[in-house]
Write a structure and sequence with these properties.
- There is one protein chain.
- The chain has five domains: 194 residues, P-loop containing nucleotide triphosphate hydrolases (Rossmann fold), CATH 3.40.50.300; 201 residues, Rossmann fold; 94 residues, Arc Repressor Mutant, subunit A (Orthogonal Bundle); 109 residues, DNA polymerase, domain 1, CATH 1.10.150.80; 106 residues, no CATH class.
- Helices cover 41% and strands 16% of the residues.
- The chain is built from 29 helices and 25 strands.
- It has a seven-stranded parallel β-sheet, with helices on both faces. Strands 8-13-12-9-11-10 form a six-stranded parallel β-sheet, with helices on both faces.
- Helix 13 packs antiparallel against helix 14 and helix 16 crosses helix 17.
- The chain is globular, with a radius of gyration of 30 Å.
- The structure holds adenosine-5'-diphosphate and magnesium ion.
Length: 763
């Protein structure tokens, strides 16, 4: 077993060309019999790290996973990919479980998912005697740690199970939780045997982070959701009441929303969750009860209606956006009220099961975490760096892909004004809310103020003429800094907080305001999504393919993203595959998916192209999105898209012909010699496709693997194959192309130049 085979498994079963960072190392380690502990963020592709080796190891891989929904999803996805997998959990009847045992004993599964509780059952233990377990994988391994957020006592007994097996299998553990304590716990409790530890960076490059300090959150949410009708999103709220209000708000405005919180019945919750996962409802409004075990890959935004209690929670929840690697947004709506709500919730926290000694420690830890979270909401620095530094990653430059990196901040010293505000609150004796305090300070002429008598205060009108927003911001800041205190109930009033620090003349109250930078001043503005490369026609095709996916998903009763991810559909819209070879070049299309659905998607694309002859579906190659050129012609901007690769007439003369070349060598030379303006790079796969069309080569299945071979015609032209030895010492074959073929390739790319006609698109 070696990594060559693993790469093939990756391609054949999952349709991916290459491993993501960390994956290859892990697969390699497992295949050479070593234990593994992998800490990788959500969406990094942990599943493939054990699923690929599971396919290559002799016996069965037992995957321990904490949640039923998670198992069902994964098993569906594996079966779709042509991998035989099953699960055992409490959702099955005894009869169904027996059937799984029988099938597994017959060797029907390569992967078996079980809940940790199952490992203690006698039936299961005697069942494992009849099968060869090559690997035990612990997914969501942080559940093993009492320091983690989702501690599951039954995870502690996994090791008993492993030790009872006749032969110790490879043990691999996966989690997205990085802290030292959790890491050590996993390693010790599972007794990992000098494991290969792989920790990849925690950054999620495709996520755009932002904090909006606003009061009118409802307006914001409504506006955002209506502007993104085709996107799937999650809106997290701190309380059930908020969930209901936001849900009703969206529904009343005609948005297709679902809701989820612990106050609802099981059946209703499951129904709503499914509506969201199966794309029947595009938005779900939920408390933090929602999400663990949600693998939906095309969540385009996560909005936090309230500030969460810790960075750990925030990153986990926000991280549910963009698992598929597409650009997605994580927006936190922040107001001073959030701090009140959270302090209130922490004060009320139930400590009844906690030993007396620990309570104070936990309180302190909670308070510290809340402080860090507040810091995130108030920082003017790079938000991404703030998060990553908290998780222990040293960062350099600002990311230029978060809200703060796109803003310019200015600071105003408002110490004098702050003292006036505090005096006013003192005069109210803590009986009134924000609006009365504000009105009094600004000297508003309101009957209500007269009625209450604040018009007679010494502070009445002391800030007359100042912008209301500015003073409101100041008051909110004073609340956040603890100088003032705002009660969290319905008739919230403002009281004195701790003003001692202000008695020190060195203490200043500094208010930060910001304005958004003009888009031109942002170094790279917002990163583009791959849908941004689609033209109007491309978008129409994307819609066609999405509908096809939805009907297949209904036929098969699986969530749409399990058939193909959005990313895969977009890649189809860009590559417009017309046959098996080209379809298999689409990222995310493996052999099995091709067999099952390839034809239907090829047909749909062909039908679309027939109806829309000559349409241009994308304006830049997916790998080359940054390759567009923007030309400003005074008023309107014209984007000239890059053209397919070609050679200028004289370019071919610089090609250094040789007796035999590898395709990659031809590719490199072509990219080097071209002087044609505004063309994309050429890839080896493009050349292989050309040679397929010319009838010189083809892809063949040999021993269940795809191998590139020369045809009769290719053989007579002199294409030869030769054996190469991989780094790991395994033999594999490659094709070498003679001068005649090299010349044909060069001629082809010189001639197609005439076909290259720049298209213009207004943006
Ligand atoms: P995690 O468990 O780490 O959160 P998943 O295993 O659910 O992540 O994978 C996240 C997404 O990345 C899935 O859509 C998966 O298909 C995709 N993916 C995984 N490995 C690769 C790869 N090598 N190339 C492209 N996409 C990949
Ligand atoms: Mg996972």
């Amino acid at each position: 077993m070696d990594i060559m085979n693993a790469k093939e498994a990756l391609k054949v079963y999952f349709g991916y060309e290459s491993f993501k960072p960390g994956q290859e190392e892990i697969v390699d380690a497992i295949l050479s019999g070593r234990d593994v502990l992998a800490i990788m963020p959500t969406g990094a592709g942990k599943s493939i790290c054990y699923q690929v080796p599971a396919m290559l190891l002799p016996g069965i891989t037992v995957v321990i996973s904490p949640l039923i929904s998670l198992m069902q999803d994964q098993v569906k996805a594996l079966n779709e990919a042509g991998i035989h997998a099953g699960y055992i959990n409490s959702s099955l009847t005894d009869a169904q479980i027996s059937r799984v045992y029988i099938k597994a004993a017959e060797g029907a599964y390569k992967i078996l998912y079980v809940a940790p509780e199952r490992l203690e059952s006698n039936d299961f233990i005697s069942f494992t005697r009849q099968i060869g377990i090559s690997m035990v994988t612990v997914d969501e391994a942080h559940c093993i740690s009492q320091w983690g957020q989702d501690f599951r006592p039954s995870y502690l007994r996994i090791i008993d199970f492993i030790e009872r097996l006749e032969r110790r299998p490879v043990v691999s553990a996966f989690t997205a939780t990085a802290t030292e304590a959790v890491k050590n716990d996993i390693s010790c409790v599972l007794k990992l045997d000098s494991p290969t530890i792989v920790v990849t960076g925690f950054d999620r490059e495709n996520l755009f982070f932002d904090v909006e300090t606003i009061k009118k959150k409802d307006d914001y949410v409504l506006d955002y959701v209506s502007k993104h009708p085709d996107d799937s999103g999650i809106i997290y709220c701190a309380t059930r009441k908020n969930v209901d209000t936001v849900y009703e708000l969206l529904s009343a405005a005609g948005c297709l929303a679902a809701r989820y919180h612990a106050g609802m019945g099981n059946e209703e919750r499951r129904q709503n969750q499914d509506d969201f996962i199966y794309d029947r409802r595009s938005v779900i409004v939920a408390t933090n009860a929602f999400g663990m075990g949600i693998d939906k890959s095309n969540v385009r935004y996560v909005i936090h209606y309230n500030m969460p209690q810790s960075m750990e929670n925030y990153y986990q929840e926000a991280g549910r956006a963009g698992r598929d690697g597409e650009q997605s947004q994580c927006i936190l709506l922040f107001s001073a009220q959030d701090i009140m709500i959270n302090r209130f919730l922490l004060e009320r926290k139930d400590f009844s099961d906690i030993p007396e000694d620990d309570i104070e420690l936990i309180r302190q830890r909670d308070a510290r975490r809340l402080q860090v979270m507040e810091g995130y909401c108030r920082t003017t620095g790079c938000l991404r760096n703030y998060i990553l530094e908290y998780f222990g990653e040293q960062r350099g430059k600002p990311c230029d892909n978060c809200g703060n990196c796109h803003r310019e901040f200015s600071e105003i010293d408002m110490t004098d004004e702050a003292k006036k505000v505090i005096n006013c609150v003192y005069e109210t004796r803590g009986r009134y809310g924000l609006n009365i305090v504000l009105g009094t300070l600004l000297g508003a002429n309101r009957a209500r103020l007269k009625e209450l008598g604040t018009t007679g205060y010494r502070t009445y009108g002391v800030l007359k003429g100042r912008p209301e927003d500015e003073i409101r911001l100041l008051i909110n800041n004073l609340i956040m800094d603890g100088y003032l205190y705002q009660t969290a109930d319905k008739y919230s009033v403002i009281r004195m907080g701790n003003i001692d620090p202000l008695k020190n003349p060195d203490t200043h109250v500094v208010i930060r305001t910001h304005k958004d930078k003009e888009p031109e001043h942002r170094a790279s503005a917002q990163r583009r999504r791959s849908t941004d490369t689609l033209t109007k026609a491309g978008y129409e095709l994307f819609d066609v393919l999405r509908n096809l996916r939805l009907s297949i998903a209904r036929e098969e009763a699986v969530p749409p993203y399990i058939i193909f991810s959005d990313k895969t559909l977009i890649d189809m819209c860009i590559k417009l595959p017309e046959d098996r070879v080209s379809m298999l070049m689409v990222s995310g299309v493996g052999e099995m998916k091709y067999e099952k659905y390839g034809k239907r998607f090829i047909d749909a694309i062909a039908a679309f192209l027939k109806e829309n002859p000559d349409c241009v579906t994308s304006i830049a190659d997916a790998e080359e999105t940054s390759g567009d050129i923007n030309i400003s012609d005074g008023r309107k901007k014209i984007r000239v898209s890059k053209q397919p690769f070609c050679l200028a007439p004289e370019d071919g003369e610089r090609f250094e012909y040789k007796d035999l070349y590898l395709i990659s060598e031809i590719k490199d030379q072509l990219n080097e010699i071209t002087t044609a303006e505004n063309v994309r790079h050429i890839f080896g796969t493009d050349i292989f496709r050309l040679l397929t069309q010319m009838g010189y080569v083809e892809e063949k299945q040999i021993d269940g693997r795809n191998v590139q071979v020369q045809t009769e015609a290719g053989l007579s032209k002199g294409i030869v194959s030769t054996e190469k030895i991989s780094k790991k010492g395994n033999a594999y074959s490659v094709l070498l192309y003679p001068t005649v073929i090299q010349k044909e390739i060069v001629r082809y790319y010189t001639e197609i130049r005439d076909m290259a006609n720049p298209t213009e698109e207004k943006i």
